[in-house]
């Protein structure tokens, strides 16, 4: 087996558990190295660190799969890892819909698997894990006997690994428009064409957190996507709900979801640019009991972090101005480069500019089926905040 040696003077990040080894952290390589090869990783003086897959075309040269020298990387390895991840979800009560594999947090770097009841959607985002796709599919078939498996590898990040973008069936074809249950509601999931894997499971616990503040309320939701927060608001007793999204197809899907649950009379959706509309409505003096903001990630690179900070501050400032005194702002960020402390600072800056006082109600992260590994910032990406605006 090819052996990769770390440089002598590197941070203790890798020895402390982080699975990524960047090319500039490697001192030497002994043996041939082709993309996707399983390699042993050693310290500069020959101590075993871990075993993982490599790709000389990637900035991340090695991604560690195991720290156990006796553990071989084979079909059985993937069966065991996926079985362990499933046991964890079952222990926490995520049995119907869940993120079954959350990459590094489940010790399977660059692998995402979402479980929608009996259907599975996967992404293999690095060459080294893509090679093991047949073993991963076999493991899913062994553990779950699924009705269908689909891959959503139509993501640009694969190109950094020298991989093409594509999507398609990894099982016998099935109807990719499915319906799932969440918190007593039903939602359409477009596995083939929806964003990411077709549905955002990471907010399923957070959507329950609005149940008390929306009772009898006039609610405005921006960046609504398929209307999940807005329909939960109606379900929990909101008087009226207006959802905004720039995408016509998202608005169509949100309307279908509202009708599916019998809330077509309470929920209305409009295809507009939320940034522009919220600014104008604040000038017009519109007011709501609850304003909910669930924007997409504003940046995926550190170079644009200041732009993301400005964007979050601006959208939250506009949202606060639309909240009645004593009403509530529900706001989120899925930009993992904006860590929790920074996110709260941004909200505080927005409040000062809006001349509003905030009382924190809830501050939490993604659902526990998207586990956070301490010391790995990329696993802690979602921030969910409810504040009373005074």
Walk me through this protein's architecture.
- The protein is α/β, with parallel strands linked by helices and 390 residues long.
- The protein has helices at 75-92, 127-130, 133-144, 228-235, 248-260, 274-284, 305-321, 340-354; strands spanning 3-6, 20-22, 26-30, 38-42, 48-54, 60-66, 97-102, 111-116, 119-124, 148-153, 166-169, 177-182, 185-190, 218-222, 240-245, 267-271, 288-293, 323-333, 358-364, 383-389.
- It has 3 domains: 3-66, Roll (Archaeosine Trna-guanine Transglycosylase, Chain: A, domain 4), CATH 2.30.130; 75-176, Transcription Regulator spoIIAA, CATH 3.30.750.80; 200-389, Rossmann fold (3-Layer(aba) Sandwich).
- Helix content is 25%, strand content 30%.
- A 7-stranded mixed sheet has the order 16-15-14-17-18-20-19, sandwiched between helices. It has a 6-stranded mixed sheet with strand order 2-6-5-4-1-3. Strands 7-8-9-10-11 form a 5-stranded mixed sheet.
- Strand 15 (240-245), helix 5 and strand 16 form a beta-alpha-beta unit.
- The protein is globular and about 70 Å long.
- The mean pLDDT is 96.
